[in-house]
Design goal:
Bound molecules: ligand G3I
CATH architecture: Alpha-Beta Barrel
CATH topology: TIM Barrel
Largest sheet: 8 strands, parallel, barrel
Strand order of the largest sheet: 1-2-3-4-5-6-8-9
Order of helices and strands: HHEHEHHEHHEHHEHEEHEHEH
Strand content: 5-15%
Number of domains: 1
Mean pLDDT: 94
Number of helices: 13
Number of strands: 9
Structural class: alpha/beta
């Protein structure tokens, strides 16, 4: 048996069989139970089956606990590089792992993502394209992937991070070849695929830096309106990635205002990739309080916004976060759990925000 299959089977077994008690904290309060009791769809977490996570039984015990996490997002494996590594050759097995893990523990899946500047295979980034040929490749990619995963996906992030901080379009092969129309066209293709399935799969635009007023926020509002005005395209929601650090986070008031600007357009909001890096590790006492406050403010803004339907952290274990000190100038430990799977104070803050009570650890 290949090591890959062995790892995946171990993860599936871990999904259904309890493992012996270890250091991991799986005691109450339970974030997903609390969020669902308060009318939200879920409190969820990203996870990445390309890493050691799936063979880490202590990690999987927390991940599999549906009282804590009721939704998951694949960190990498549904991106273009993984799903269509060569033109017309689709490999869905790694994304299938996420769907299987989710099904085993009653989680919904936010599928992520169909079109993005990053994690593209070389045949896309280095291809010689015309408007017509790239559109055809994009349409094939989107429709094949949406139709394959079907209603295994609760939603799709159709286009990810199309905008720059100055509000212009991020330079990538799609924008350079097709122009700004690639965004509504991607939504059109995704919507056509959903219609052909006859399924209720929600279509999202997902980005960071759009959560509060500013140039990028304004540009994202305009982009949503463009998609809404496009013939046979549809957008259900906007994902607020919500990547923050203790050196900078958005206040609850600014996030509430940011959410309401979008909900006025008739779309729902989800917090999709929440994390808050400490400016250095180990986190100082004051950084832990600031981190808790930013988690609290973000979750609280979502709880107070009826159209904010779910909240997801971008993994829950510092060990596997994308923010590692070596890569981010010393910043780290941005998750709700430390590497030994004990909890940051921010976990308590999130539970309190969901319940609408004052933060005791901020
Ligand atoms: O798969 C290779 C593996 O074979 C190799 O051994 C290893 C060595 O470094 O690299 C692995 O690929 C890495 C991949 O994650 C899977 O682990 C890439 O180098 C690494 O760049 C990639 O990073 C991902 C990043 O997106 C890419 O931009 C992160 O895991 C993922 O968490 C991050 O997620 C994004 C969201 O999709 C969009 N919003 C921002 C968010 C954080 O950057």
């Amino acid at each position: 048996m290949s090591p890959f299959k062995h790892t995946f089977l171990a993860a599936l077994i871990a999904a259904v069989a309890p493992v012996p008690a270890q250091a991991q904290n799986t005691s109450a309060p339970y974030l997903n139970t609390l969020a669902q009791s308060a009318g939200k769809l879920w409190f969820g977490t990203a996870m990445d089956t390309t890493t050691r996570e799936v063979s880490d039984s202590a990690y999987m015990t927390v991940f599999n606990d549906t009282q804590i996490f009721g939704q998951t997002t694949p960190g990498n494996t549904m991106k273009w590089e993984f799903t269509e590594p060569s033109q017309g050759v689709f490999t869905f097995s790694e994304g299938d792992e996420t769907i299987a893990l989710a099904k085993a523990t009653g989680k919904k899946v936010r599928c992520h993502n169909l079109v993005w500047s990053s994690e593209l295979p070389a045949w896309v980034t280095g291809g010689t394209w015309t408007n017509e040929t790239l559109l055809a490749a994009m349409e094939t990619h989107i429709k094949t992937e949406v139709e394959y995963y079907g209603d295994g996906c609760w939603s799709w992030d159709v286009v990810n991070e199309a905008l720059d901080s100055d509000g212009g379009f991020t330079s990538n092969v799609f924008y350079e070849t097709i122009g700004a129309a690639y965004v509504p066209l991607a939504f059109q293709y995704a919507y056509e695929a959903v219609q052909s399935l006859g399924a209720d799969i929600k279509l999202f635009y997902n980005d960071y830096g759009i959560e509060y007023s500013g140039t990028k926020h304004t540009a994202a509002l305009a982009l949503v309106q463009t998609i809404q005005g496009w013939n046979n395209a549809y957008i259900d929601g906007v994902g607020f990635e919500s990547h923050y650090s203790t050196s900078w986070g958005a206040s609850k008031a600014s996030q509430l205002e940011g959410m309401s600007d979008f909900t006025e357009l008739g779309v729902q909001i989800q917090v999709t990739e929440l994390d808050v890096g400490c400016s250095s590790v180990p986190c100082s006492t004051s950084d832990l309080a600031t981190q808790a406050q930013i988690y609290y403010d973000t979750v609280s803004a979502c709880m107070d916004t009826e159209e904010c339907t779910g909240m997801t952290v971008w993994d829950f274990d510092d060990e596997y976060s994308w923010i590692q000190p070596a890569d981010y100038d010393g910043e780290g430990d941005p998750c709700l759990y430390y590497s030994d799977l004990s909890r940051h104070p921010a976990y308590t803050a999130v539970a309190e925000a969901i319940q609408g009570i004052d933060c005791s650890v901020c």
